[in-house]
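[stage:ingest] chain + small molecule (adenosine-5'-diphosphate)
[stage:ingest] validated
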Amino acid sequence: MSELVAGRIIRHAERLKLSHLTDTAEQLCQRADDAQLGYREFLDLVLDEEVAVRESRRFTNALKLSGLPHRKSLDEFDFAFQPDLDPRKIKDLAALTFIDAKANVCLLGPPGVGKTMLAVGLAIAACQAGYSIYFTTLDDLVRNLSDAEATGRFRKKLQTYLKPALLVVDEVGYLPLSRAEANMVFQLVSRRYEHGSMIWTSNKSFSEMAQVFGDDALTTAILDRLLHHAEIITINGPSYRLKDRTLTAEKGDRH
Ligand code: ADP
Ligand code: MG
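[stage:predict] done
[stage:export] tokens:
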């Protein structure tokens, strides 16, 4: 390749923001020579690598901004530990059709059964598939919205929770909300209703939600929209956090 052409390819690639091609034009040509690639194969190689690099950068950046508390994937979930949970239900959800259907998922159950881990795993799968995601606990959500309200930025802040295709709201029901906070949750749920998916995790049953939102009518209004299109998974099983303690106790028992 003449110096002139080589330089122009890099300048054009840079201008078109094809960063991988900018960095590797010479090596790509060398590889095409070595493997005696045809024109189509070469174009395919160049575009394929550019897309792969771009996609992996998007995924990394999106995960960084997602608010996820960790990066454990669904593959790491030990279904054998939670025999009452049907793995097929999670696998069906991992196909992510609920996001296209703007439907919700509620993961209910006592502490330690893996609600947060499953929500995170589904969110990572969604992010990998190109959906925008955001993770928050309910407490952080209402605190952020209340702070924004106090400084006249409520509408803008609400957008953070409205924009993503999938919003995870973790730990619903740990603390009861004030009337104003419950109203914010209602606004969020009604604005996302049939527009975007949510995954809610909670240690409370739906019948206990009135204690969280403080008011029967408001609770009904929230649950009505949340549950109209929703998959509800209740995990009634042992706490994974206590797993090692249980094993140690069992070992101890045997002696
Ligand atoms: P919850 O949100 O229901 O309280 P978490 O998802 O936070 O529970 O799970 C508690 C801890 O145990 C986390 O570190 C999680 O990754 C792990 N964990 C829970 N269930 C499983 C499981 N079935 N397989 C592997 N790790 C699990
Ligand atoms: Mg949790």
